[in-house]
Amino acid sequence: MDRERWQRVQALFHEAADLPTGEQRAFLETCCEGDATLVVDVMALLEEDAQGDSLLDRDVGQLAHEILEETSEAAESLKDFGPYRIRTVIGEGGMGVVYLAERKDLWSQVAIKVLRDAWVSPARRERFTLEQRTLAQLNHPFIARLYDADSTADGTPFFVMEYVEGVPITAYCREHKPSVAVRLELFRKVCEAVLYAHQHAVIHRDLKPSNILVKEDGTVRLLDFGIAKQVQILGEAANQTIPGARLLTPAYAAPEQLRGEATGIQGDVYSLGVVLYQLLTNRHPFDGAAQTSAQAERALTERKLEKPSAVAGRQGANSQGREGGNAEGKAVWADLDVLCVKAMHPEVQQRYASVEALIRDIDHYLKGEPLEARPDSRMYRLRKFAARNRTEVIVGAVTIASVLALVIYFTVRLAHARNTAVAEAARTLRIQQFMTNLFQGGDAAAGPADQLRVVSLLDRGVQEADALSEPAMQADLYATLGSIYQKLGKYERADALLGKALEKRRAIYGGSSPQTAESLIALGMLRAEQARLDDAERLVREGLEIERRRTTVNGEALAKAELAFGRVLAQRGSYEPAIAELKKAVELESKQGAQPVNLAASLAALADAHYSAGHYEQANELYQGVLEMHRQIYGPTHPLVADDLGNLGSIQQDLGYYAEAEQLNRQVLEIEKAYYGAAHPKVAKALTTLGRSELYQKKYDEAEEALAEALGINEKVYGRMHPEVADTLNELGNVASMKGNYPEAEKRFTEVAEIYRTAYGDKHYLVAIALSNVAYAYLNQKLYARSEEMFRDVVQRFTAALSADNVNTGIARIKLGRALLRQDKFGEAEQETRAGYEILKKQTSPSISFLQAARKDLAAEYDGLQQPEKAAAYREEHAAAEKAAMAKK
């Protein structure tokens, strides 16, 4: 047997060995293409391999079957994975077995992937662990989500992920026969998911239709990161490559992968190109769905890629809703050919440099615009323009006047640009004169005062602006001065000036101008600070729509608009839509040439939204990155650095690390007081968060002193019915509760709930927090039935506004369990307390007070249920956590 044939036998053996025994021969007969001798040789190896008695020689499918066989003792323990109950096997591969399972308490379906033969191969275990870590860091609507990860009693690792009830993307298109445009929109979603993975430093390396499922409603899910690879730097060059093992699907692997060379993000681009080719033609570009690596590599070098248009023409493209057959159809297919051929180019340097570049050309195609990948020519661009503007071009083409009109248009535009530049220079000079007069108080012979207060300076600036005779400059100054008043907490003055700026810009530039959009967004963000969220969303949305409609888009202006809209959505409690908008802002700000300051602002807002949604790990990672950026840009004592430290402190607080939170909050207060003075709302916020961290360490007097000072500042700045006031009142209610003054606590919390309802509406999670505190005050006053009723309502509110496994939901369920325990409803109490306990145990410090309270309650509940062993176990766990906490102190 020659070397090449032996390599082929080995390759087929390894591929067939991962299949169930009953499927091996059929697989080989398909792959061997009539070579009966080759089938016999490989089957002989497989049969010999199956005869061994050691665990290493056992058939993997048989072993998996035995593990789950109902008559086996081991099966009884593996039929349940924690709270999940196994239903059936839904897939097997080289890495593991995938089961359909059901969560016992929520009755929701999930997929559980279990590593096969984990004890045999450390390399396999390492790849499996990498897939867990990869999925854990990817949170995208088009990527199957990771829910949980653990190991069985014998150490076999598994993880729980979203169950996707769908079909491969190629099968979906064959069944539904959508148009080319719909296929491209579907494919674009796949590209978005891959781009998101690349932006998080993850290369998939095994993109193929079976890993891209489409649900019946048309939603896409990307699966199987089993051989994904992490790159070192997110922004690495397009040709950056990294070494990887030859774990791949040959029919979809890039040439450099097949050759065993280092592979970068362009490998995923190639695989996407193959998938796109199949979506457009309903066939593989090389008819190679069952090829070995050697066959696939040989096909790439020996066979020329047939253009999709030629394949579609033979298949009768019109019958499947494709554009083809006429002159226009050929032009359209020329662009589709470019998309596929460019993505699948065998040379890495000639391929799309990134998935983002591929997405851009897909968007260009869908909008009828010229592709970046096509050679630029006047005729091509004119043809694309004509396709997008068919009616206008037909009407204009009947006379030579259309050509003349274009010449005049560009001539006038150049003249307008020149005049605008001259006017801008004059305006700059006028602003310089304005600033000089501002500091001199109108007296050219006088210097600035020794004690010039900022507010006095601003008031003088408003007088100067009122006296100007140039409306455009007047509007600009109103906008600038209004934003400064806003930063100083002078909201009434800011409101008046920003309103004037908007009114004047509409009159000067029109309702769809970028200047008007800027004023709409600025006024909308002020409304958000005033907690007038309906007005805020309306104004910012209007400004954002103007930026999106502009023909020549200013990327920086659009990014600011997306950022503002995302912030307003987050403030309204719409966290997932907010995260989607803020990611758009981050993407725009991440482009080459963007300002680091703007990128940091977008990342900080994205972190805020993740934090509010309960995504603590993502939020913490983003906040740490933003903190380093702000320190490098502004130094260690800037208010933005204080904001970052405060955000990190809030995460520590929520996770039960109160001493760490207090340390961070004291740094925040020191920075804010030095920067703003003692009576600023930012100082009040810092005092409130400091009081909160002191409260949970039972430093009641220190906490009450800080909170009373914060309340005085907030009421003076905002009035009584403002969320900042509610935040401080809530902590004062907590002080009263922890000191045993429960009627006072109930009063405080009820007022907090009303303020939040007024500001955010009844469904916001902050309303649920306030009501939870009211219910706990009832519990402490021994109004158990009333407390139970309200806690049930609170659990539903948290589940709807956040999620069933959010920390706040877990705390509410523990408190509901206590209300039931006080009424001797031991069975119901145990169910709620244990559910809350499991949620918090996975996400918080073992010594957090809520977990300790849950352990005590569970012990009492199991006593009531006559289960002393379980009661004793939780008492021991409570004592161990308490001992560990004392040792830490």
CATH fold category name of the largest domain: Transferase(Phosphotransferase), domain 1
CA radius of gyration is 32 Å
CATH architecture designation of the largest domain: Orthogonal Bundle
Choose one word for the global shape.
flat
| Total DSSP E strands | 11
Give the structural class.
Answer: mainly alpha
For this structure, what is the CATH homologous superfamily of the largest domain? Transferase(Phosphotransferase) domain 1
Number of domains: 6
Could you describe the 3D structure shown?
The protein has a 6-stranded antiparallel sheet. It has a 3-stranded antiparallel sheet with strand order 7-9-10. The chain folds into 6 domains: 3-51; 61-149, Phosphorylase Kinase, domain 1 (2-Layer Sandwich); 166-305 and 321-396, Transferase(Phosphotransferase), domain 1 (Orthogonal Bundle); 399-439; 636-761, Serine Threonine Protein Phosphatase 5, Tetratricopeptide repeat (Alpha Horseshoe); 773-889, Serine Threonine Protein Phosphatase 5, Tetratricopeptide repeat (Alpha Horseshoe). Helix 33 runs parallel beside helix 35. It is mainly alpha-helical and 889 residues long. The protein is flat, with a radius of gyration of 32 Å.
Defining key terms:
889 residues, Phosphorylase Kinase, domain 1, Transferase(Phosphotransferase), domain 1, flat, 6 domains, three-stranded antiparallel beta sheet, mainly alpha, six-stranded antiparallel beta sheet
